[in-house]
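Hey, quick one: can you model this chain's 3D structure?
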Amino acid sequence: MILSLLFMCCLIGLVGKLFFFGIRAAWGLTKFFFVVAFWPLILVALVLIGLIHLAFPLLLIFGIVALLKTATE
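Sure thing. Here's the predicted structure for all 73 residues.
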């Protein structure tokens, strides 16, 4: 009885840790996918519909931020 209770407590703890690990991993993959796939598509779409005056400054701002972020790491 005691071993079964101990087993259940440990199993619940393990499932909880795996659940939160999965959420953190999914969030990292989601951020990566948005940066790699959606950001260039959004910029290309802005250029194609004639909003290059909006797309170019956004590209410059995010490029400078990316350079500064990699320089400080």
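One thing worth noting: The chain has one domain: 2-72.
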